[in-house]
Amino acid sequence: MLRRFALVLQLTQLVALSPILAxxxxxxxxxxxxxxxxxxxxxxxxxxxxxxxxxxPSEMASQMRAVIRxxxxxxxxxxxxxxxxxxxxxxxxxLAPRRQGFNLLVWLAPAIAVAVGLIVVGVLVAxxxxxxxxxxxxxxxxxxxxxxxxxxxxxxx
Length: 157
Known about the structure:
Layout: H1 2-25, H2 33-40, H3 59-73, H4 78-89, H5 104-129, H6 143-156
Helix pairs in contact: 2-3
């Protein structure tokens, strides 16, 4: 009888503690909307293509936000979540290309273009504002020159 009582007591404890054990096994990770938004802003919507996943109203963007939320809830870091999408869709999925390799040209080209433009403007302004040598005055007219001019003028008339 004592043995039966101990068995019933153990079963009662097991049933009473099972919900607590179930909660302890599944860590409840709260993922804030801001965390999802911070990652979604970096990704391009595959439907809209000119909007971020955070701004796109499409169903696909909604599903991508849900995937982001799931990955964050599973304990992945934001850079791991972004890498997941890069692995799945390629570098194209990133709204801002990474600053490495050939993509570095995308980041440097505007600065180089502005620098070249400023140099060209500076050279042109320097040329336009430079003092030019004085124009030589025409040689003074002599009596012989005046006579020749008069003859040529009368010959035309």
